[in-house]
Specification:
single chain, about 230 residues, alpha/beta, Alpha/beta knot, 6 helices, about 20% strand, binds S-adenosyl-L-homocysteine
């Protein structure tokens, strides 16, 4: 079973994402284990400090190295980790192909930064991979860790009801997903395309593929360029 350990100073931010719907069911069905750790529990002093002023001055606090490394090393003494990931706006841009890659791993650790980020020495000496979820800055790595975990977990075998469902999602074959419809067939004169009501499976597949191609050409031509 895949295991994801998330290290944070704000564990409350990670309570929601795993407590509902598909991720909740994946955890209940023992397809993945997600464990959230409060870095404060590894703080070395009685005030439970996890951050301090930046050397050299300037605004913003920096997450201290000792509590984080104590937490990482305690977890490493219990099992080996395939990746120790730091969520960071200057990391490798997260995409479907990286999600696919990470979904094949066994144990993942994800470190969430807060304030100005973590002491650089953690990144240099303990982190194996740095991931950004986009070119914007969040106040903490927690939501980003939830995004990455969600994208990974829904790919694990058995998580989605229909096994093929993840395969037909956008990006999976460098194509955007085709449009989808459900009842009613006519809403205020806005009709569902006839082909979808025809029952001709092969024709429907063909139509969906054409729609995917057209949509990708129109919205994301960059995806069609061979890489
Ligand atoms: N001073 C840092 C930003 C700190 S933001 C810089 O300019 O690079 C606080 C934390 O939020 C970061 O340590 C990181 O863990 C998280 N974070 C912010 N934006 C993110 C993004 N786009 N992707 C992933 N994590 C992000």
């Amino acid at each position: 079973m895949m295991r994801i350990d998330i290290l944070t100073v704000v564990p409350g931010l990670l309570e929601g994402p795993f407590a509902h719907s598909i991720l909740k069911r994946a955890i209940q069905n023992k397809l993945v284990e997600v464990v959230v750790h409060n870095i404060r529990d590894w703080s070395v002093n009685k005030h439970k400090t996890v951050d301090d002023y930046a050397y050299g001055g300037g605004a913003g606090m920096v997450m201290m190295i000792e509590p984080i490394v104590a937490c990482i090393e305690e977890l490493q003494s219990q099992r080996s980790y395939d990746e120790i990931i730091y969520m960071s706006p200057d990391g490798e841009l997260f995409d479907q192909s990286l999600a696919n890659q990470l979904s094949m791993k066994g144990n993942l650790m994800i470190l969430c930064g807060h304030y100005k980020g973590v002491d650089e020495r953690i990144r240099r000496h303990f982190i194996t991979r740095e991931i950004s979820i986009g070119n914007y800055v969040l106040s903490g790595g927690e939501l980003a860790a939830a995004v990455v975990s969600d994208a990974i977990i829904r790919l694990l075998p058995g998580v989605l009801n229909d096994e093929t469902s993840a395969l037909s999602d956008s990006f999976q074959d460098n194509l955007l997903a085709p449009p989808v419809y459900t009842r009613p067939a006519d809403f205020r004169g806005h009709k569902v395309p006839d082909i979808l009501l025809s029952g001709h499976e092969a024709e429907i597949d063909k139509w969906r593929h054409e729609q995917s191609l057209a949509r990708t050409k129109e919205r994301r031509p960059d995806l069609l360029k061979n890489d």
